[in-house]
Amino acid sequence: MQKKVHMAFGVFCGLVALYFLRVPFGVWSISSITNASLFLAAAFVASTIPDYDLLIPGMRHRGISHSLLALMVVTIISTIAGLYFKHDTLFWFCAGFPIGYLSHLISDSFTDHRVAWLQPFDNTPYGYPIFNTGSALIQGILMILLWCANGALIYLILGG
Ligand SMILES: [Zn+2]
Q1: Residue 159 confidence (pLDDT)
Q2: How much is the average pLDDT of 7-21?
Q3: How far, in Å, is the centroid of ligand 1 from the Cα of 23?
Q4: Distance in angstroms (rounded) separating the CA atoms of residues 111 and 124
Q5: Domain range spanning residue 64?
Q6: Cα 93 to ligand 1 centroid, rounded to whole Å
Q7: Which of 65, 60, 36, 46 lies closest to 7, judged by CA?
Q8: Are 53 and 140 in contact (CB under 8 A)?
Q9: Alpha carbon of 12 to ligand 1 centroid (Å)
Q10: How far apart are CA 58 and CA 155, in angstroms?
Q11: How far is the centre of ligand 1, averaged over its atoms, from the C-alpha of 4 (Å)?
Q12: d(CA 41, ligand 1 centre) in Å
């Protein structure tokens, strides 16, 4: 799947998480909009991280970076960093990071290659192949739909 589709889906997952987090926060204030922006920025950035395996010599694409184990490591590191920054707005960046990483694995699971979530213990690819990673048309349509959904979610979150 193309990087820009991963980013759009990362933001989508971040917005869905924010939508459900909205209740305890009540009305959005300037500070919570800053926090939400950091949360979404982290989801946006982290949504591309698993594919950096392409840049590491000797590392197999959709190998260990595309697994529950990698997601657990990212979540543990983000939690430790989040606890360190717990009184800082950076906490929200740490909170959004695993969401973006997870979004990448979910979206790759719906491509023809799918994802071997249980690596290195089981290399069986899991998922439901709906999208062809080679089709620029499908990816373009997906991206438009995702950004429309993201706009609708922002409208909902802001109380529209
Ligand atoms: Zn990937």
Answers
A1: 76
A2: 93
A3: 32
A4: 14
A5: 3-157
A6: 21
A7: 46
A8: no
A9: 17
A10: 44
A11: 12
A12: 19
Distance CA 105, CA 36 (A): 22
24: CB partners within 8 A, 6+ apart: none
Note the residue count of the chain: 160
Q: How far is CA 14 from the centre of its chain?
A: 7
**Dist. CA 112 → ligand 1 center (Å):** 12
Q: How far does residue 109's CA lie from ligand 1's centre (Å)?
A: 9
Which tens digit of pLDDT belongs to each residue from 36-93?
A: 999 999 999 999 999 999 999 999 999 999 999 999 999 999 999 999 998 888 999 9
Q: Which residue has the higher pLDDT, 126 or 26?
A: 126
- 99 CA distance to ligand 1 centroid (A)? 15
Contact by Cβ (8 Å): 108, 114? yes
What is the pTM (predicted TM-score) of this model? Answer: 0.92
Both tokens assigned to 135? 């089709």
Q: Provide the domain count of the chain.
A: 1
Tell me what percent of the residues of the chain surpass a pLDDT of 90.
71
